[in-house]
Design goal:
- The protein is of the alpha+beta class.
- The protein has a domain at about 225-384.
- The protein contains five helices and 16 strands.
- The strands form six sheets. Strands 10, 11, 12 and 15 form a four-stranded antiparallel β-sheet that branches. The chain has a three-stranded antiparallel β-sheet with strand order 13-6-16, with no helix packed on it.
- The relative contact order is 0.14.
Length: about 375
């Protein structure tokens, strides 16, 4: 058998390495891919922060005027005023009226005594601060705050957690984030033009010619105020006793009964005129019925709302639960914490005692619900 030997200088084929030029090309490609990935990640991160900031604006809105979908009230319903800054949504106010002078806090619970969440026996309403209205965690310094998703700060106004927060004379509320660059929009149009969408203030100015202007209101006054001057209000009272009897004396009217030493009492079991007459009583559905309005104001319940009077006479025909109430001149712009109760001057002394409120039904059916924690039902209101 013949053996073949390799010729001198001839070697089998071997795998060749990358040249320097090829290595440089690989490095360039990998660098470009890394930069692209970083850019995409940065854009995705900014978009996420943008969406989170938009969600936090809605949280601020709900903290102020409530969230009907979750049956939760807000600061305005509980306190009867707008917050003077965003800190009041997270921490108790130092004063019930929003002033700079602290109110007394004798029990040292952090809430001024006059606007602690408490029950008002005269109206059947709760009122006071019951926050925090925003879910938040303490920062590095242990202080509660609610910043935008970029973590903006404003050393000049720490009470607003870096947000731009303003209200106008009408009661509209404006809240704005300073964006990625944590700066107010520049007034110079050329400088503003080079900013990307994340660096610009959000929401943008409502005036296209003024990039530093206020955005559209986060909350409009009509969303929490009620202007019903010189109008009629439709309310749902439930069943009211329209049947009356003189107890302890003879009398076919409140005046005659009182003159004879009797007590004019409603007969709640008589639901129509026939059953009232059968009970030897008088069908008199409008006798003594009045409407008293209440409003939370600076954390307390205030019933001194109407010009020159605290009550409104009502015209109730007996069995119809819906009622049109004529309101006096000047009854305007009451807040979202407005409520009412129906009362009778049962002892005919010209005043309404606690036991004369309509105790058979919830005391104070609401025009606008207080929501989260309260003894009253949620009713709808409408203005004509």
């Amino acid at each position: 058998m013949m053996m073949h030997q390799a010729r001198p200088g001839h070697h089998p084929a071997q795998q060749q390495g990358l040249s320097l030029l090829e290595l440089l090309l690989v490095v360039v490609i990998l660098s470009a891919a890394s930069l692209l990935a970083l850019e995409l990640y940065g854009n995705n991160d900014n978009q996420l922060r943008f969406e989170q900031t938009r969600q936090r604006l809605q949280q601020i809105r709900h903290a102020m005027i409530g969230n009907p979908q979750q049956n939760r009230s807000g600061f305005v319903q509980d306190m009867g005023r707008l917050p003077v800054n965003l800190r009041e949504l997270v921490q108790p106010p130092i004063s019930c009226d929003g002033g700079a002078v602290p109110d007394d806090d004798l029990d040292n619970d952090g809430v001024p005594d006059d606007c602690e969440w408490a029950f008002d026996a005269n109206s059947g309403l709760w009122a006071g601060w019951r926050g925090p209205y925003l879910d938040t965690l303490p920062g590095i310094n242990g202080v509660l705050s609610f910043r935008d998703a970029w973590g903006n700060t404003n050393p000049g106004a720490p009470e607003n957690f870096g947000w731009r927060f303003e209200t106008n004379a009408n009661g509209d509320v404006f809240v704005q984030s300073r964006g990625l660059d944590q700066q107010a929009n520049p007034a110079d149009a050329a400088t503003f033009a080079v900013l990307n969408d994340y660096e610009r203030d959000y929401p943008p100015s409502a005036d296209a010619l003024d990039v530093q202007g206020l955005p559209s209101p986060l909350i409009r006054s009509v969303e929490y105020q009620l202007d019903i001057s010189n109008g009629q209000l439709q309310v749902d009272l439930g069943y009211l006793p329209p049947c009356w009897r003189c107890a302890g004396a003879i009398g076919n009217s409140r005046a005659e009964c009182g003159n004879n030493g009797g007590i004019w009492q409603p007969i709640s079991t008589a639901i129509d005129e026939a059953s009232c007459i059968a009970a030897v009583a008088i069908w008199q559905p409008t006798d003594g019925a009045k409407l008293v309005f209440f409003q939370r104001e600076n954390g307390q319940v205030n019933s001194d709302l109407l010009p020159g009077a605290e009550t409104v006479n009502i015209n109730y025909e007996g069995t119809n639960e819906r009622l049109l109430v004529d309101l006096p001149n000047g009854f305007t712009a009451q807040s979202a914490s407005l409520s009412y109760a129906v009362v009778w001057d049962a002892d005919n002394n010209g005043t309404f005692d606690n036991d004369e409120y309509l105790a058979a039904s919830p005391v104070g059916a609401q025009l606008i619900p207080i929501g989260r924690q309260g003894p009253l039902p949620l009713l709808h209101w409408s203005v004509f």
